[in-house]
Design brief:
heterodimer, A: 230 residues, mainly alpha, MetI-like fold, 10 helices, 78% helix, globular, B: 222 residues, alpha/beta, Rossmann fold, 3-stranded antiparallel β-sheet, 8 helices, 9 strands
């Protein structure tokens, strides 16, 4: 990285070190958000549409999991993936895959809880009509997920935002290895501690830009939903 | 045929239907009238299978294909034509049904953006797409202006002419006279009178039914 460049210069000149970090962070967080959606949306939908003993307790648990401290998740995944852990033979510790696993665990409850609430609200609206039309359980599920798709995409973006902004889990399971597992948040923490403020601030600017873009996308999806679906 | 045999529906301590026996036979357009809380909506919902009797039984002869239009129908978050297509049974008749209810121009608009009257007409088209042999309607014109009411009535008359059995609740006695050949007067979850339309309006029924028809029924059930 060239010396004496300001944070803005690093961003505007497309500094390779900075953008390698941004690229990895985006790949890890996007992968985690998509995997979490694959698990979280069906899980949320299943809870929304079913009634069973302990459902309320499960919902409370799921909502509580939204606030899980990333460092705790990092610690659990670290213990699971470490050599002596149950998944140690996979050899994933200190790899981007381990970071994806940790962030997926972090984000899944967020997407599942938001999906559960969204689909349950829509089900309350649709219940009489779909029951009267004798719509079966699978078609009912597909209908609700499809008609709630814009809200569910917003939930996915919320999950991505959470993953992109967290530092505790990825620094524990990724190890913050330069050029391999260093993400925006872990790099900001490290560079700040080293006194390399231009890179830390540059990454901070990119991170803020990403958060703004994610929120803009969420807003655009909601507007599109209103325009297309009423 | 759908038959209610000594059907009671209770929610908590409230009895919505009280040992009600009623037969809905094919053909005769039937209107349920009665004061608020009489149990009209409960009859329609129970006949559709949307709620189960607390006691008694509901028998269905040959599982007739049923559909219902609610007082405030819920439109799916889709376009007008997608709402009809969603419920369609058999060959796609979306265009034909849209033309029938005068909504061809709105086919690609979001259904939830339609006016109340248009949504009610869409709900009728959607219910018809199921090809029901019995159509239940819960005060389908209660929230409509006079012109929209007239449009919906004309559609119902067309459905009846096609041979569909219609069972409808309404507070509009003129509408009951125009559409029904049978009137069921309900009060307190029970049937107070079940007569051919001409006879119902010609006879002196006595008690609360007369007060209801004169518009003098008080809020109290006692």
């Amino acid at each position: 990285m060239p010396e004496n460049l300001s944070a803005l210069d690093l961003v505007l000149t497309g500094d390779p070190a900075l953008f390698a970090i941004v690229r990895l962070a985006l790949i890890v967080s996007l992968s985690a958000a998509l995997l979490a959606a694959l698990v979280g949306v069906p899980l949320g939908a299943a809870i929304a549409l079913s009634s069973f003993r302990g459902r309320d307790a499960l919902i409370v648990f799921l909502n509580a999991m939204m606030g899980l401290p990333p460092v705790v998740i990092g610690l659990v995944v670290y213990l699971a993936l470490s050599r002596s852990g149950p998944l140690g033979s996979w050899g994933l510790l200190f790899t981007p895959q381990a970071m994806v696993i940790a962030q997926t665990i972090l984000v899944t409850p967020i997407i599942a809880a938001l999906a559960r609430q969204t689909i349950e609200d829509l089900w309350l609206e649709y219940r009489d009509e779909l029951t009267a039309m004798e719509v079966g359980p699978l078609r009912r599920l597909a209908t609700l997920v499809w008609d709630a798709r814009f809200s569910l995409i917003t939930a996915l973006l919320a999950g991505f935002g959470r993953a992109a902004a967290e530092v505790g889990a990825v620094i524990i399971v990724g190890g913050n290895i330069e050029g391999f597992t260093r993400t925006m948040t872990t790099a900001i923490a490290l560079e700040t501690s080293k006194g390399n403020l231009p890179l830390a601030i540059g990454l901070g600017l990119v991170l803020i830009a990403i958060v703004v873009i994610v929120n803009a996308l969420a807003w655009a999806f909601r507007r599109a939903a209103e325009r297309l679906s009423g | 045929m759908i038959g209610f045999v000594e059907v009671t529906v209770s929610v908590g301590t409230v009895t919505l239907l009280d040992r009600l026996t009623l037969t809905i036979a094919p053909g005769a357009p039937t209107v349920l009238i009665g004061p608020n809380g009489a149990g009209k909506t409960t009859v329609l919902r129970a006949a559709m299978g949307l709620l189960q009797p607390t006691s008694g039984r509901i028998v269905r002869d040959g599982e007739p294909r049923r559909a219902i239009v609610f007082q405030r129908p819920t439109m799916l978050r889709r376009t007008v034509e997608a709402n009809i297509r969603y419920a369609m049974v058999g060959a796609d008749r979306t265009r034909e049904l849209l033309a029938l209810v005068g909504l061809e121009h709105a086919a690609t608009r979001p259904a939830r953006r339609l006016s109340g009257g248009e949504q009610q007409r869409l709900a009728l088209a959607r219910s018809w797409s199921v090809r029901p042999s019995i159509l239940f309607l819960d005060e389908p014109t209660a929230n409509l202006d006079p012109s929209a009411k007239k449009e919906v009535e004309a559609l119902l008359a067309a459905f009846i002419a096609e041979g569909m059995t219609i069972v409808m609740s309404t507070h509009n006695l003129g509408q009951a006279k125009r559409l029904a050949t049978r009137i069921v007067y309900m009060d307190g979850g029970r049937i107070g009178a079940d007569l051919p339309t001409a006879q119902f309006f010609a006879e002196r029924l006595g008690g609360r039914a007369d007060l209801f028809l004169k518009g003098d029924l008080s809020w109290s059930l006692e």
